[in-house]
Design goal:
mainly alpha
Length: 195
């Protein structure tokens, strides 16, 4: 699995700053370069502030080069590869998990979005993290640990604050949790998720 993660990282870093910024990346740079109060005040209704706040903090440390601007997307995408493997493994098949991670690592669309200064890679990573923690809450051995509950709440909130489509994560989880409750009748684990 380490090889798959390294492959994903190498594919995403290759030519990261080769192309100039396109319009949406320029918007990311413009919004995240503003003072936080101004950014939040002027945030258009079609955007959630999470990505821009994170990018604002990152650019303050790393600078505003094309490479620095796009690097958080690389990190989110590589993290998504590792999380896909972990979720697949916990669902019961290391072989299927490895194939899923390899497909995600080499997928041209994933590489494209990982090299773009937008929130999509981070949205995928937080959605996968939230899904893995949901599985831990419902069926895993860590369902009673405080960090699983807290991690689930934080990763789900992060997905929502990155993009409006992040709202689909808890909706899908609700459908899954109700289905899981119907088949297992485990009200204790369902209750922890509901809280």
């Amino acid at each position: 699995m380490v090889g798959v993660v390294l492959l994903a990282f190498a594919l995403r870093l290759a030519h990261l700053d080769f192309q100039s910024l396109w319009s949406d990346e320029g918007i990311s740079l413009l919004r995240s370069s503003q003072p936080v109060a101004v950014m939040l005040r002027d945030m258009p209704v079609e955007h959630m502030p999470g990505y821009f706040l994170g990018l604002h903090t990152w650019l303050g440390m790393a600078g505003t080069s094309d490479f620095a601007l796009r690097f958080p997307s690389v990190v989110g995408s590589v993290l998504a590869v590792a999380l896909a493997y972990r979720l697949g493994t916990d669902l019961g098949s290391r072989g299927a998990a490895l194939v899923a991670a390899l497909l995600l690592a080499t997928n041209a669309f994933q590489v494209w979005y990982a090299q773009e200064a937008r929130m999509y890679s981070s949205l995928l990573a937080t959605g996968l993290c939230s899904s893995w923690l949901l599985w831990q809450l419902l069926a895993g051995p860590g369902g009673r640990r405080w960090w699983v509950v807290l991690g689930y709440a934080l990763s789900t909130a992060a997905a929502i604050y990155l993009h409006f489509y992040g709202l689909l994560v808890p909706i899908a989880h609700g459908v899954l949790a109700v289905g899981w409750l119907v088949t297992t009748r485990n009200w204790g684990r369902f209750g922890r998720w509901a809280l």
